């Protein structure tokens, strides 16, 4: 397991959180906010995906999903929204976005990419997944109902080799660590919200009011 060096309080770590956000909801926002407090993230950049290569295509348009993300975090200084992946009409490969971000922020800035436990378990299916840690740290948030161990001994060894147990380690080098965060388990999914909307059910407890109001105004997720 990698060992961290003494904490440098002046180090600044920039975290990115990608997703389809169809729609964005509290299951995205509240665990990330808790993670930011736990790990000392000063800013989290939301990266809405345009054409997710491993998932069904979104119901909402790229512009609608971008607007929902912006509405969800309006007035919250922790979050900003980066629309760069929505400007690309080809599949959104995380490795390519991270390579671009690394060039923009330089070789020495610590960068973190936030994923859920569900994504960790399928990370070996991502495009050029073995190179992800060359560009960033990976921070994993808990997800309800998902196993804790990876599928094969080789994958588990990769995880154990790079894992650190304290978030301060993420600020000691620009990339290369995996940190498993103790975030709240919120059993909310965009699929559930879409299904409830299709059935005419209330979703006000699952997502910010501004997002719910926008969904209504756009007539989204109706049969």
TrEMBL record:
Lineage of producing organism: Bacteria, Pseudomonadati, Pseudomonadota, Gammaproteobacteria, Enterobacterales
Gene3D superfamilies registered for this protein in UniProt: HUPs (3.40.50.620)
Domain of life, source organism: Bacteria
UniProt-listed Enzyme Commission number(s): 2.7.7.18
Source organism: Rahnella victoriana
CDD domains per the UniProt record, alphabetical: NMNAT (cd02165)
UniProt enzyme class: transferase
Family from the record: Belongs to the NadD family.
InterPro entries cross-referenced by the UniProt entry: Cyt_trans-like, NadD/NMNAT, Rossmann-like_a/b/a_fold
Ranges of residues in domain Cytidyltransferase-like: 16-196
Pfam families noted in UniProt: CTP_transf_like
Known pathway: Cofactor biosynthesis; NAD(+) biosynthesis; deamido-NAD(+) from nicotinate D-ribonucleotide: step 1/1
Function summary: Catalyzes the reversible adenylation of nicotinate mononucleotide (NaMN) to nicotinic acid adenine dinucleotide (NaAD).
Catalytic reaction annotation: nicotinate beta-D-ribonucleotide + ATP + H(+) = deamido-NAD(+) + diphosphate
Keywords: ATP-binding, NAD, Nucleotide-binding, Nucleotidyltransferase, Pyridine nucleotide biosynthesis, Transferase
Record protein name field: Probable nicotinate-nucleotide adenylyltransferase
Gene Ontology MF, one: nicotinate-nucleotide adenylyltransferase activity
């Amino acid at each position: 397991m990698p060992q961290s060096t003494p904490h440098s309080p002046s180090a600044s770590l920039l975290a990115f959180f990608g997703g389809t956000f169809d729609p964005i909801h509290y299951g995205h926002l509240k665990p990330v906010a808790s993670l930011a407090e736990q790990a000392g993230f000063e800013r989290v950049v939301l990266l809405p995906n345009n054409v997710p290569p491993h998932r069904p295509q979104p119901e909402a348009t790229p512009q609608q999903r971008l607007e929902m993300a912006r509405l969800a975090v309006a007035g919250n200084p922790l979050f900003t929204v980066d629309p760069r992946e929505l400007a690309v009409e080809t599949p959104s490969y995380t490795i390519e976005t991270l390579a671009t971000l690394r060039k923009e922020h330089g070789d020495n800035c610590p960068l973190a990419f936030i994923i859920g436990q569900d994504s960790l378990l399928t990370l070996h299916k991502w495009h050029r997944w073995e190179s992800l840690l060359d560009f960033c740290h990976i921070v994993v948030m808990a997800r309800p109902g998902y196993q804790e161990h990876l599928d094969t001994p080789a994958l588990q060894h990769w995880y154990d080799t790079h894992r650190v147990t304290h978030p301060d380690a993420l600020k000691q080098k620009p990339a290369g660590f995996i940190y498993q965060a103790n975030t709240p388990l919120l059993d909310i999914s965009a699929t559930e919200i879409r299904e409830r909307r299709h059935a005419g059910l209330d979703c006000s407890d699952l997502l910010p009011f501004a997002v719910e109001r926008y969904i209504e105004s756009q007539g989204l997720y109706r049969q």
